[in-house]
Design brief:
Helices cover about 40% and strands about 15% of the residues. Strand 8 and strand 9 form a beta hairpin. The longest helix is centred in the last third of the chain and has 38 residues. The protein is built from eleven helices and twelve strands. Bound molecules: pyridoxal-5'-phosphate (PLP). This is Histidine decarboxylase.
Length: about 375
């Protein structure tokens, strides 16, 4: 019998209503909201757990490994991983994938220095601290992309140390993409032989690969490992992601653990057994073509948003083929209402699947009203 009091039950329902309401004003974070996983709800009664290696069966058989393997196969093909030389797992999100990539890099190059741009996601700096790695922050250009001249100079000064590059395939605030071909050219020019490249493709990885956007960043373009968030473009009710790595690199990590009857090759012990099923379901239901079309619709929505903002006199802009529209920060009230992230005076809307024209139009109306109010106030005080 439930011990929940009437007050607690009311509190729960009030919370659920609030979450529902806030989901209508959610255009500032890169999270898809257009999913329907209701067919999978019966699975929420089961304690699925993919503890340990996704490729090695476990005595914890109440898992979703077989579907996880198919999700990984999908990403391996999408990211042109070398056949028979890739490995990966479904993570708790992009941050864990970045930690894993840096972990592999450190096992290969314990003396390596990590080079990452100042626009890099905050998780990377924390991961570097956790792994006790040396690092150098590289300046960015105005659009958020790495400043390659600064990278060249820094590398030149530390030519005797192995290099670990953390490249951004869509920075958090401006969705700028670092160009691997330029980075590799610098490494060649400086005759650096010992290097490792990890791509933080948490934000833009899936749709950039689906639409074959430039600059390329996959295994054929030279990445050694790569992290993508699953809840961002594909969408999921809980955070998740995928990390992929060249298999020969990762083989230094992992011990057989009798208790779980499998190999401990991942960062966390217990792993969400539901998220691989949700990702699998979305991939199968939409298919590559459906996912591609969804990505194109997002790009169209981003172009629409940018244009609408410009039409009312807001200095909005986007990086090439980005879903992120950047503009000067509006008032705190509007940022709060629409859950809009802001840094150094820049705000953004990210046109993820589920962001609708109606939402954009309502937001534009809010901004316009705010701009008019500002003009009226300045007229009164003049
Ligand atoms: C560029 C980038 N990297 C990493 C992350 C972290 O991903 P997650 O929230 O899935 O851990 C984010 C999240 O917004 C991001 O934008």
């Amino acid at each position: 019998m439930s011990q929940m009091s009437i007050a607690d039950s009311q509190r729960l329902h009030a919370y659920m209503e609030k979450a529902e309401e806030r989901s209508k004003y959610f255009i500032g974070y890169p999270i898809a909201q257009d999913f329907d996983y209701s067919e999978l709800y019966p699975l929420l009664r089961l304690p699925l757990n993919n503890v340990g290696d996704p490729m090695v069966e476990s005595t914890y058989d109440l898992n979703s490994r077989s579907l996880e393997q198919e999700v990984l196969q999908f990403f391996a093909e999408l990211l042109r991983a070398p056949e028979n030389n890739w490995w990966g797992y479904v993570t708790s999100g992009g941050s864990e994938g970045n930690l894993y990539g840096l972990y592999v890099a450190r096992e290969l190059y314990p003396e390596g220095i990590v080079y990452y741009s100042e626009a890099t996601h905050y998780s990377v700096q924390k991961n570097i601290q956790l792994l006790n790695l040396r690092s150098i922050v590289i300046r960015t250009q105005e659009n958020g992309e790495m400043d390659y001249n600064d990278l060249r100079q820094m590398l030149q000064m530390h030519r005797d140390q192995p290099v670990i590059i953390m490249a951004n395939i869509g920075t958090t605030m401006m969705e700028a993409k670092d160009d691997l071909s330029k980075v590799k050219q610098i490494l060649r020019d400086l005759a650096v032989k010992n290097y490792y490249i990890h791509c933080d493709a948490a934000l833009a990885g899936t749709y950039s690969a689906l639409l074959d956007l430039k600059p390329g960043f996959d295994f054929q373009e030279g990445t050694d490992s790569l992290s993508i968030s699953g809840h961002k473009f594909i969408g999921s009710p809980f955070p998740c992601g995928v990390v992929m790595v060249k298999k020969n690199y990762k083989e230094r990590i992992g011990k057989a653990i009798p208790y779980i009857g499998t190999v401990d090759t991942t960062i966390s012990g217990s792993r969400n057994g539901h998220s691989p099923v949700f990702l699998w379901y979305a991939i199968k239901k939409l298919g590559r073509d459906g996912l591609r079309q969804r990505a194109q619709e997002c790009l169209d929505m981003a172009a629409y948003t940018e244009q609408r903002l410009r039409d009312i006199g807001v200095k909005a802009w986007r990086n090439p083929a980005a879903l992120t529209v950047v503009f000067p920060a509006p008032s705190w009230e509007l940022r709060w209402k629409w859950q809009i992230a802001t840094e150094n005076g820049h705000s953004h809307i990210i046109c993820m699947p589920g962001v609708s024209r109606e939402q954009i139009d309502e937001f534009i109306g809010d901004i316009e009203a705010e701009m008019k109010q500002r003009v009226q106030l300045s007229e009164v005080s003049a």
